[in-house]
Amino acid sequence: xxxxxxxxxxxxxxxxxxxxxxxxxxxxxxxxxxxxxxxxxxxxxxxxxxxxxxxxxxxxxxxxxxxxxxxxxxxxxxxxxxxxxxxxxxxxxxxxxxxxxxxxxxxxxxxxxxxxxxxxxxxxxxxxxxxxxxxxxxxxxxxxxxxxxxxxxxxxxxxxxxxxxxxxxxxxxxxxxxxxxxxxxxxxxxxxxxxxxxxxxxxxxxxxxxxxxxxxxxxxxxxxxxxxxxxxxxxxxxxxxxxxxxxxxxxxxxxxxxxxxxxxxxxxxxxxxxxxxxxxxxxxxxxxxxxxxxxxxxxxxxxxxxxxxxxxxxxxxxxxxxxxxxxxxxxxxxxxxxxxxxxxxxxxxxxxxxxxxxx
Amino acid sequence: xxxxxxxxxxxxxxxxxxxxxxxxxxxxxxxxxxxxxxxxxxxxxxxxxxxxxxxxxxxxxxxxxxxxxxxxxxxxxxxxxxxxxxxxxxxxxxxxxxxxxxxxxxxxxxxxxxxxxxxxxxxxxxxxxxxxxxxxxxxxxxxxxxxxxxxxxxxxxxxxxxxxxxxxxxxxxxxxxxxxxxxxxxxxxxxxxxxxxxxxxxxxxxxxxxxxxxxxxxxxxxxxxxxxxxxxxxxxxxxxxxxxxxxxxxxxx
Lengths: 359, 253
Ligand SMILES: Cc1ncc(C[n+]2csc(CCOP(=O)(O)OP(=O)(O)O)c2C)c(N)n1
Ligand code: SF4
Ligand SMILES: [Mg+2]
Description:
A: 7-stranded mixed beta sheet, 14 helices, 15 strands, B: about 250 residues, alpha/beta, 10 helices, binds thiamine diphosphate, binds magnesium ion
């Protein structure tokens, strides 16, 4: 059996990065995710795998270091929490506009503004609808455990290189700070220079050799028609992502009359809500989107005919509920329950709110 | 003597380096950007490092530097080139990595990135084009705009009370422990061009010696922004910019 180690979700991100052959991490301290860089600095992967770890002067610099590293075909990442991610949004737009692979981890805290260091899911809109300027998408993975934090790092790099697109792990302060057993995976070595050349030489800035034209990484197109053609190409890519990369899980949905949709830490808390409901003779199930973009629209749509109600449970003022309503399209009532400012609701509290919606 | 007898390979005294692509420059006549591009291309060619050099272009008139010098390029967000260069050099230490930045890019929006990259002593080259104006956006005030200088956003001349003072960022950079070579040059005549070329070559050589950051400012003209024709622009630069931005090495170690 593979080794299991007790660690925080944030530490899991760091260990997974070293383990899966990440080439570089660039970050700036912010609660509740500083353990990511602290763990990397303690582990000194530059002495083992050769991974570069650098504390940047700001999140703006971090994401632009990620941009530079991604231009070189390297597996590079950063992590931050909500206010820091806001600063990175310009860079994420550039990464998307230049079709560069990278990983951005957001361990969400409450906002707006400086907000609170307590957990939140208030950046759902920012992560799934853009954040930065222009028509772009990031692939968004929502972990619900320290194990997910660990496993999604490697998955994120796979997806980032498959689609040459930024991927975000959208965690929250609960998942980042919680200690759980994490099963370690077989380690992958960092890619060699030859492997990078093989994989990325058609686009990466690794030095122009005589056998190919110079590579330029840019998101600039002054002519309207050129920009439009490029944007259409991007949209095609996102459609491909929507067709191929949807991930979700269900809990007791087979016979469900009612459905809770929840992601991240809230999907776990809601499992207890299902138990309470079923003890009271109410057939409740959970749909947990694992990818927030692409959203599991088809899975939700397939459940709608059997349902009498849907409730979205989020640590925010009601963001994902808009996507649920788009799918439900008036066929079944959709309600919302959420807490904000770092308050995490108990299963009983959520159950009470749920019962009110079906009376 | 017939012209055909003169046009012969053995009489050739000047040729375009093959590293400068055969593309029509988008720069205005008299603009310093094109001259500095030529110098960089020549240095890369003469050092034989085309396959080992990564350029990082800014936001500004020289955003299109990648259209002219035949190497791999990254195009940075406004002011962020030193952050890209930091990661690029650290992840590929055997490469020559340089940023090419204007004064708005480097000394205004990108002040934090340039200061910290230089302070960390990143083994990169920074080429800094100081034309005392925002060329690309139509001639607005730059941090380096001189007191009294008329621009689109200082139509009555830059006033310290309103706009603060012109920023001598190169002097600040020279104070940072992480820099090994900091110099201010110009390209308005052949002598100045030769000096700038030497400086840029030294900067590239330094970057493989793990000595820290090399920083080459080129005091430059912007004819369109200044609204002065090329020859007079050179004179205006010599009369007004050189006294405030004196040429020469500030640091070499
Ligand atoms: C974030 C952002 N802000 C503003 C701009 C608009 N902009 C483009 S170029 C430029 C000024 C460039 O001036 P400088 O760096 O001096 O370069 P020059 O054109 O003079 O060579 C500005 C403000 C931008 N592209 N991005
Ligand atoms: S606007 Fe100024 S800096 Fe830009 S190309 Fe013209 S002269 Fe050069
Ligand atoms: Mg300028």
